Structures are given as C-alpha cells and as structure tokens.
Fold Succinate-semialdehyde dehydrogenase.
Amino acid sequence: EARLRRRAPPAGGGHGSLLSSQERSVRLRRWYELMMENKDELARIITAENGKPLKEAQGEVLYSASFLEWFAEEARRVYGDVIPASAKDRRILVLKQPVGVAAIITPWNFPSAMITRKVGAALAAGCTVVVKPAEDTPLSALALGELANQAGIPAGVYNVVPCSRQQTPAVGEVLCTDPLVAKISFTGSTATGKILLKHAAGTVKRVSMELGGHAPFIVFDSANVDRAVAGALASKYRNSGQTCVCTNRFLVQKGIHDKFVEKFAKAIERELHVGSGFDAKTTQGPLINEKAVEKVERHINDAVSQGASIVTGGKRHSLGKNFFEPTLLSNVTTKMLCTQEETFGPLAPVIKFETEEEAIAIANAANVGLAGYFYSQDPAQIWRVAEQLEVGMVGVNEGIVSSVESPFGGVKQSGLGREGSKYGIDEYLEIKCVCFGGL
C-alpha cells in the first residue's frame, strides 16, 4: 500500500496533465511499433509462462499490439459537445476528462492482450495505471513495461505490481479501496469480480468488469455442417479451452446432430495435437495448473455417471499431469455439471435439441452472458436468434468474434462495460458539464 501511495499520482490527474492528446497518441503508437519489432520474443515469453502454443502466442502479441495502435488513434478523438441552452444568456459545454488512476487487474490466459486492451484505452484517455498481473504470468506485464519505457511513456504512468498467489487478495483489496485509485478494470472470474465490486463500493469507484462466460454454440438443421465444425474447433479448443469466450455448451438440432458429432470427432482427432507450446506441431498446450485439470476430470466423470458418452478423448494425456486430451461428449443433458458451470478446459459437451425455442431457452438459462454462437442459413432465424440470445457478443456462422474494432463485454453476471472499439475509451473518461452564465 505504501508503494502504491508513493508511485500513484493524485486522483483526477494522470499523464493527461503532462502530455497533450497528440503526444499521447505518438507514444502509444511508438509502443505499438516496439511490440511489433519484438513480437517473437514477446510470444516466447507468453508460451513459457502460460503454455499456449507458440503460434497462438504470436497471434496474441499481434492482437495485443493492435489495441495500442487503435487507442493511439482514438486518443485524438475524445470529443466534447456544445448543447443549446434554454436561457439566452447561457452556454452549455460538455468536457471529457480522465478519471485518474486506474487499477488494472488481469488474468493469466491472455497475459499480454488483457493488459493492452485496458491500458491502451486508459493512457489514451490521459489516465495513469497500476497493473496487477495474474500471479501465474507476470513476465508479459513486465516486458510490456520495458517497451513502454523505451516508447517514452513517462515514469509512473505504467506501473506493474506483481505478487504471489498468497498476496493477491490483499493487493486486490488495496487497489479497490485506496482513495487514490479512481477506477478498477478487472478481467477474471465472476466470483472474484463480485469481491472486487464490494471493495470498490466503499469509495464508489468507477468499475468495468469482464467476467466469466458459459457460451452456447447452437447448430441448427439449416447450418453448413463443415463450416459449423470448423467454427466449433476454433471456438472450443483455442488456448486448450481456456478463454472467457470459449464455447462451453454445444446445442445441436436433432436432424443434423449425428452428422455434426461424427465430423466434429474426426476433426478433433485429425487436427488437434497435444504437446509443448514450443513444438511447431502443437495446437493444444498444457492447462495452467493441476487444479484446472481436476475440474475437467470432475465434469467428465459427472457427465458419464449420468449417462453421457465419451466420443473421443476423456483423460489426462501421457505427456504430463497438466496435459489433457481434447474431449467430446454426446448424450449430454442440462442437469450435468459441464452444462451448468464454465469448464475452462478442452471439453466439448453436446446437447441434442428439437426446436429453436428449446435451444434459446437452454442458452439463456445461465446467469451469465458473455459470448454466444450459432450456425444457420435461414435469414429470418438468424435475426430472431441474434436478438434473443442474452449475451454481449454473438457469432453468426463464425467461431471467433474478438477484434480490436468490436466492443468486448457481457451482460447479466458476465460483467459491466465494454472494452476495445470506439466505446472502450469511455470507460476511462468522466463527463463534465460547464455552464457559462451572464452572457
């Protein structure tokens, strides 16, 4: 706490008071360029500390850098407003100003991109940040700090506070309760998000939360099966199933069910390869720790005990305790744990349904709503389902929805606010009304 007090500038300040919007833009752009110049080394750091395949890590670095590029451009587009006043002797102006010090708390599954998506917006707005990276993956945050320094980001603007697993709750509490901090941005589990919200309530901080998901992936009878299988493979098994927007429940209509399961199983066995992230052939690295593996096992055992069938996979891989085989289950019901909880691992459970209404009801039964996907070639059905799914992001005939231009976030207990896109910078700005009288 003392360290935070020494390093954090006063609330309401930030490097917005030190640098013009153009200067912020130039330095964020330079930070982006340095990430691109060092992209291979940054990717190796991600694979070393997170375990994801090097090709995926390289993709994350490009994705991560793109947020610095995007918000370098947005820094110069923070526009105010002039509002016509009802009184002739008044003028009403609207200013947008940085909220102040922003505490950034990030997860291990995207140890670089989850930082830049928040920090790029915060710095573009004129805020300073204190980044608390996940205890499993602090090196990416520190590497970004070194490049920020090289890019000319002023000292004290981008701060990193790594800590152990044991100290994480205490550090999180300080960041959420200290009056010097004006804003909390967190990506992680819903349970942890609720704790941080309680802490932040004491000083009524601005908060944005990107929390857990339970994404449905619906395949209707009209779908192109081959495209649905390709989308399912990408959506489910990226980062070994350890992303917030990974599909957690596959809902497949009765008429197409058997064909989809058969083709999906063949695609898993043909295209997915478990191994070290540094092996070029690997598509599936290890899970983050043994606790994550145990959860996958628990979900599989529960489903099988209630009548589910293992189509492929189903057990730990021979490579080591944190490696797990990509798994596909059929004959799954909504009473099974794997359809009630987010697995966060390489497990794909398939539920058979009969009607569109039934699929929507199952999909929306969750108390979270981050991403949802569906495949259909019926235009009317596409409009109906896209509007009815209770999620923040919908993939229509597409298994990957994230991009720098798109607003990222969820509804219900999946969070508050949006990141990326033209909306992302608003999370770090306060709106001030200025009324000029006596004119």
Q: What stands out?
A: The chain has two domains: 21-211+414-437, 215-396. Residues 1-16 have pLDDT under 50 and may be disordered. The CA atoms of residues 238 and 382 lie 25 Å apart.
